[in-house]
Amino acid sequence: MAQLKGNDRSAFVASMFGRISRRYDLLNTLMTVGMHYMWRRKAAQLAATHVSGDILDVASGTGDFAFDLLKHSNVNIVVGLDFSSEMLDVAIRKSVKLGLGGRFIPVIGDAHILPFPDERFASATVGFGVRNFSDLPKALADIVRVTRRGGKVTVLEIVRPQDRLSSVLFLRYFRWVTPKLGKIFAGDYEAYKYLPESVQHFMSAKQLTKLLKEAGLRNINVETKGMGSIAIISGERP
């Protein structure tokens, strides 16, 4: 697939996630052998520690990151923003089953132009989403803008491993296994062909950390999991 940019990329990604929304959770579990639950819990713990109030979860998708955040007693509500109404529909149904009431608030919106005032949230998170942003520096800057001073921004993302052998093994697995799983379980080979392509063209944890620093974060903590293929990066807005 040719590298799409700007509005074309956003429209493609929104359409793709809409198509796979009902099977997204299942495929995540299969592709990561269930490890995504542990990674997300760790990221949620970092995001919720030493903050109190409301949290914004950008690219909230089917809501799992938001629901892990809401397990922390110091979190009042989580606003889950995503540009796919189909993904948020899944999140809404799950929040009802979990009995969360009004603590999960879904919002359809664009991560590059967040519809919130400055310093609205105690913390902000993005789980497996920044890789799909069409203008990553702009989106990160806006996420920092709506996070209050002293608050946190936490990113959980698939990255290119620094170790050469790990990188080769990881990309081969993603390139060959992921599309086949997508075809079998979601009936959408093309959508799951995009995912390994997006990883191949994405950056390392070090490069992503640099962008977060340029967006204004300080005291940045970086943890990698999954042979260096998963980065959990959390920083404070001074």
Automatic annotation (TrEMBL):
What Pfam family is a match, any one? Ubie_methyltran
- Give an example GO molecular function: methyltransferase activity
SUPFAM superfamilies named among the record's database cross-references:
S-adenosyl-L-methionine-dependent methyltransferases (SSF53335)
**Database matches in PROSITE patterns:** SAM_MT_UBIE
User: Might you name a Gene Ontology BP term for this protein?
Assistant: methylation
InterPro entries assigned: SAM-dependent_MTases_sf, UbiE/COQ5_MeTrFase
Q: Which UniProt keywords apply?
A: Methyltransferase, S-adenosyl-L-methionine, Transferase
Task: Report the Gene3D superfamilies cross-referenced here.
Answer: Vaccinia Virus protein VP39
Say yes or no: keyword Cell membrane present.
no
Indicate whether S-adenosyl-L-methionine appears among the record's keywords. Answer: yes
Transmembrane stretches, by residue range? Answer: none
NCBIfam families per UniProt:
MenG_MenH_UbiE
Protein name as catalogued: Demethylmenaquinone methyltransferase
What species is given as this protein's source?
marine metagenome
Its lineage opens with: unclassified sequences, metagenomes, ecological metagenomes
